[in-house]
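Researcher: Sequence recovery benchmark, item below. Answer with residues only.
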């Protein structure tokens, strides 16, 4: 059997990153996690890193401010996965990855790089709205740097993180589902795709030694999880045995409210607009040069929307 790649996770303390560490270890990869010097006395992060070590990961010290430190850690592994922050209401550091790309280029040994993507495919968002397009633009800058450096890559388009979208019944600003009411975005009929964050990590790890995913975009589209907001609400109503009171927010109202918010909020709302009013995640067929994760890996028993939502009962 082929040797399993050694993996470095950058951003391993994060919301998605910690799941990538777990999945990498679970799939038997020798797993290295970057311990940034800048963590300082962030006790939660340090404790999380120590727990990775207890589970068998290697912690490696490095800094985005020290190129040679990054080159040194990259040289230890075959595959680099970056899950650096990219949500403005939390933190957005996507362009810092250019430093990681420089290190990977100099190290010269990396067989696959998965940059911090894990959302809407930025290549399909050339016409995205301001200010949220910054997320896609920055991710495309990183893609260009990767491709110009000739670094082998896989881009994971993970669609909607379930925790954000299902938790809030697809309403921005909510991450727990109400048992009383819901506001539909428009008619609530645009389809989107919801993926359990642990499943995103599992599928991502599955791609790294797979020649079918080399230099490709992999979309994660679990077939049962392609649903409209109304369908998500129906699933929740079935689970709680009660109908919610429904209202609706028109496209014009949504955009008007968006303009009154601060910058970080506007970025997030722009993304909801493209997903929920335009249906940007589910309104295209996967073309040549791309793959779909649940087809590539039918053995993964993904979490359905209904299963995910039972955790809120
Ligand atoms: P987090 O906000 O949890 O941050 C991840 C990690 O980024 C941190 O733990 C830290 O890692 C690293 N980081 C933060 N600031 C800095 C800095 N100044 N310098 C270096 N590293 C830093 O990220 P998420 O898990 O929320 O996001 C990961 C990816 O997923 C992003 O690309 C994001 O756009 C995408 N995403 C997609 C969503 C969707 O619905 N499709 C929803 C949310 C995110 P450490 O300290 O370990 O170095």
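Model:
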């Amino acid at each position: 059997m082929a040797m399993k790649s050694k993996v470095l996770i950058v951003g391993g303390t994060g919301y998605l990153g910690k799941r990538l560490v777990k999945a990498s270890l679970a799939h038997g990869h020798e797993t290295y996690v970057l311990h940034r010097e800048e963590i300082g006395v962030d006790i939660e992060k340090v404790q999380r890193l120590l727990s990775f070590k207890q589970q068998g990961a290697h912690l490696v010290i490095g800094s985005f401010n020290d190129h040679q430190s990054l080159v040194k850690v990259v040289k230890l592994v075959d595959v680099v996965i970056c899950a650096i922050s990219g949500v403005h209401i939390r933190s957005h550091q996507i362009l810092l990855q250019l430093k990681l790309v420089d290190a990977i280029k100099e190290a010269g040994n990396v067989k696959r790089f998965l940059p911090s993507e894990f959302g809407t495919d930025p290549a399909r968002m050339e016409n995205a709205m301001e200010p949220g397009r910054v997320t896609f633009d920055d991710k495309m800058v990183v893609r260009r740097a990767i491709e110009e450096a000739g670094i082998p890559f896989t881009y994971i388009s993970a669609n909607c993180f379930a925790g954000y979208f299902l938790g809030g019944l697809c309403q921005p600003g909510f991450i727990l589902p109400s048992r009383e009411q819901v506001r539909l975005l428009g008619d609530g009929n645009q389809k989107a795709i919801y993926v359990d964050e642990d499943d995103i990590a599992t599928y991502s790890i599955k791609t790294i030694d797979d020649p079918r995913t080399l230099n490709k975009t992999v979309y994660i589209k679990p077939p049962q999880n392609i649903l409209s907001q109304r369908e998500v609400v129906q699933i929740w109503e079935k689970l709680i045995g009660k109908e919610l009171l429904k209202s609706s927010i028109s496209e014009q109202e949504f955009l008007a409210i968006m303009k009154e918010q601060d910058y970080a909020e506007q970025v997030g709302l722009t993304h909801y607009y493209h997903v929920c009013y335009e249906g940007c995640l589910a309104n295209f067929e996967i073309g040549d040069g791309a793959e779909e994760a649940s087809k590539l890996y039918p053995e993964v028993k993904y979490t359905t929307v209904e299963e995910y939502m039972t955790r809120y009962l």
